[in-house]
TrEMBL record:
Signal peptide: none annotated. GO terms for biological process: L-amino acid transport. It comes from Franconibacter pulveris. Belongs to the ABC transporter superfamily. InterPro entries: AAA+_ATPase (IPR003593), ABC_transporter-like_ATP-bd (IPR003439), BCAA_Transport_ATP-bd_LivF (IPR052156), P-loop_NTPase (IPR027417). Residues 6-237 form the ABC transporter domain. This is Amino acid ABC transporter ATPase.
Amino acid sequence: MSEPLLCVEKLDVHYGGIQAVRQIDFSLAPGEQATLIGANGAGKSSTVRAITGLQPFGGDIRYQGRSIKKRSPEALLRDGIVMVPEGRGIFHRLTVLENLQMGAWLRRDSVTVRAEIDAIFQRFPRLAERQNQLAGLLSGGEQQLLALNRALLSKPRLLILDEPSMGLAPVMVEQVFSVIAELREAQVTLLLIEQNARLALEVTDRAWVMDSGNLVHSGPSAELLTDDAIQHIYLGEA
Ligand code: ATP
């Protein structure tokens, strides 16, 4: 078993008197894909906001063996923790192409970056057609694809996706998840937060279930997909 890339230990998140996350523990090995599922308000976003340095927390989070406690979101980003937040976080007033270029701003290999951007445009003709238009004019699904591809251009060591299917039409959800499914082959370490638990379990190796700030269940995603209780509560099946 390799050294974990990410180790969350007795994580607590409070907002004033509200405790959103309660003493949760989990770890992620390099190259592993995992999902955090649970109902609205379970504490999933609070957990990933802590991991990206955006949210003060109790307990500890170690990344590459080092506590992130005193490190800024910018420093963590430079070290490879990249999040696509709920609502996507693209730059609406930059063009589609400029958004992709922003993803690669820390890279020095500009020839490879250009080739990767060309490959994205080949695969997603809508993004190619609109490369010189403002990103804010794209549909929600196109913005999500843009955000995901921008994140991948930054060559993340740990990619965090917060609700990538939120509010998207089914055909766009399919496209977004086809990109996510490929991350396994590319061995991108992934932490996926998703309301659509079935899809999330299908594209990951491991899963943790949160409920009211607690981690209430964990296991291989394939097992959770067939677990009666999980199916009943989180997959909306009888
Ligand atoms: P969702 O899918 O709705 O984003 P979640 O599982 O990601 O849910 P969190 O967003 O982490 O859950 O919220 C956990 C709890 O913390 C909820 O009770 C929520 O109301 C509360 N909370 C989240 N952000 C804040 C905030 N900025 N101030 C106060 N309470 C907050």
